[in-house]
Specification:
Distance between the termini: 50 Å
Helix content: 25-40%
Structural class: alpha+beta
Largest sheet: 7 strands, antiparallel
Strand content: 15-25%
Number of helices: 18
Number of strands: 22
Shape: globular
Strand order of the largest sheet: 8-3-2-12-11-1-22
Radius of gyration: 23 Å
């Protein structure tokens, strides 16, 4: 007994030494995809708010200044690091939910799938989660009131802001859909065309909706007169929402995915209904068995393609955990990881057709991500979405709420493949009240010495982008290098190794082709990462925004 007590005392003393050596972050950071949203987050931190307060404020601000990427009519995932007597990780699932009248043949006309029905208009919209998320975060963890945290976004919506080249480009991608909806055209276009840079986008109806949430709480969106207005508009436009869809909606607090890695680090990431966290975990665990750090660029790209190929193959087995039993433990079991890693050949690509088949998923890539770190060590990484750019391009008149088209993230055609060539996933079929599978994967890496947060928009490319950024971190690079690193991507099907313009030299491409890889140089760069880093022994902290976007990282 004396020896046991001495051992316990020794462990406690070691823990106290480690705890006392940990220095809180010297500076707080907000990293988001839009300068105005980052400034709003810093403003809330200066008012005495914590990371969760800032996350609420940034979410609302992005709904105003990035209507093409997220908003009250969308959903998302929030990963939280909470400090106190001990560190606690939490995951808030605010993913949209299929209407109760949804069914597997919802987008079939005369026996044939009509793709536009799940992309444009009211029938494409699932039940939004962001208003409920704002309320849940505020009630559970905020220091300031919901009204305080929404005030900056309300002012932005009411007073307006000058649009930029990014807004113009993204409105151009969805111009026809925006023109087809009178309310969206009135709000986001100028006389039916894309506005000039500097044009002031004012959204008084959205300001009023945010003010309602500030005064009455999140449930005011889902019940009463406002809910009736939403349902009537959707039904009049051919959608299938009912009041019960809104009153029944709730966010889900889920246990985050936590996986032990080498060097006493842990990956903390998104569980199902995200497929992204598991793909990231599998990729990192396989790479631990491969000499990726010593490999020259072409060989490293080969290793990446092979681990991504195997991880993405597995994601078609996943779905909403409230509807199916996800085989998470099996997919992360050591035997499975070892088997996959050992099947990778150093000198030859593995044809995807030679691997046991598994259905894949498709999703839109027009999303947003932000990250917050406060000076107490609380952190939030959040990935939010409307799915396609400007969502369904359907705005509910009188509300300013632009609805999502997340129903397109379900497997609409179980007998074929979607427009991206990905085969259908039975686990992700359309069902009443179900959440569609997603690749959104806000993630942390934490060890004894430091903490890092990762995340990005990008649809099916989100997990591979996060892994690439994490490898830069593991290689000792700076946060600016994490987000700037060249990107390559493989997702099992189609069997192609895609890469950003300039990411691979001609010589590297030739080496990969000799190994049997089919290559595709993409027409443009992709992704918009926002990352954070905190060195625990010094208290030094930093953040970085992807140079491919217009986001900024601000400190306080």
């Amino acid at each position: 007994m004396a020896r046991l007590q001495a051992a316990v005392l020794s462990v406690l003393l070691c823990w106290l030494v480690v705890a006392s050596a940990e220095q809180l972050p010297q500076r707080a950071y907000v990293s988001s995809a839009h300068p105005l949203a980052s400034a709003v987050g810093i403003e809330i931190l200066k008012q005495g708010g914590n990371a969760i307060d800032a996350a609420i404020a940034v979410t609302a601000a992005l709904a105003v200044v990035e209507p093409y990427g997220s908003g009250l009519g969308g959903g998302g995932f929030y990963l939280l690091r909470r400090t106190g007597k001990s560190v606690d990780y939490q995951f808030l699932d605010a993913r949209e939910r299929a209407p109760l009248a949804a069914h597997t043949n919802l987008y079939r006309v005369d026996g044939v799938i009509e793709p536009t029905l799940s992309l444009d208009g009211a029938l494409a919209a699932a039940i939004p989660g962001i208003p409920a998320a704002l309320d849940a975060l505020s009630q559970r963890h905020a220091k300031l009131s919901l009204a305080d945290n929404l005030a900056p976004a309300i002012a932005l919506a009411r007073n307006g802001f000058a649009i930029d080249a990014v807004y113009q480009e993204r409105a151009g991608w969805r111009l026809a859909a925006l023109q087809n909806d009178p309310e969206s055209a009135r709000l986001f276009l100028h006389q039916q065309v894309i506005p000039q840079q500097g044009w002031i986008l004012r959204q008084p109806e959205l300001a009023a909706t945010l003010s309602m949430l500030a005064q009455q709480g999140g449930r005011s969106f889902y019940q009463g007169p406002f809910a009736e207005k939403l349902v009537n508009a959707v039904q009049n436009a051919g959608g299938i929402w009912a009041l019960k869809d809104l009153t029944d909606y709730s966010v889900k607090w889920r246990a985050p995915l936590i996986v032990s890695l080498a060097e006493q680090r842990q990956l903390i990431s998104a569980p199902p209904p995200s497929a992204g966290g598991i793909a990231i975990a599998q990729s990192l665990l396989m790479l631990q068995r491969l000499p990726w750090q010593q490999a020259e660029p072409a060989q490293r790209a080969h290793y990446l393609a092979e681990v991504f190929r195997r991880a993405y193959r597995d994601r078609g087995l996943l779905g909403d955990p409230d509807f199916i039993d996800n085989p998470v433990q099996t997919l992360l079991a050591r035997q499975h990881i070892v088997q996959m890693a050992d099947s990778i050949r150093v000198d030859q690509a593995t044809p995807s057709a030679s691997l046991a088949p598994s259905p894949a998923l498709h999703e839109g890539d027009h999303t947003t991500h932000f990250a917050v770190l406060d000076q107490q060590g609380n952190a939030v990484a959040a990935t939010l979405s409307l799915n396609m750019m400007f969502g369904a391009a359907f705005t509910v008149p009188g509300t300013g709420v632009l609805l999502n088209d997340e129903m397109d993230d379900f497997a609409a055609d179980l007998e074929g493949s979607n427009a991206y060539g990905l085969s259908a996933s039975v686990a992700n079929k359309v069902q009443a009240g179900k959440r569609p599978l997603s690749s959104m994967s806000p993630s942390f890496l934490e060890g004894p010495n430091d903490f890092a947060a990762f995340g990005t928009p990008g649809g099916s490319r989100i997990p591979s982008m996060n892994v690439l950024s994490m490898l830069e971190y593991l290689d000792g690079q700076t946060p600016n290098q994490w987000v700037a690193s060249p990107r390559v991507h493989h997702q099992y099907l189609p069997d192609v190794l895609g890469f950003e313009p300039g990411a691979l030299t001609l010589e590297q491409q030739q080496r990969l082709q000799k190994k049997g890889h089919a290559l595709e140089e993409l027409t443009r760069n992709y992704g918009n990462q926002q990352v954070l880093w905190w060195q625990k022994d010094s208290g030094q902290s930093a953040a970085a925004s992807d140079p491919r976007g217009q986001g900024v990282s601000l400190s306080h």
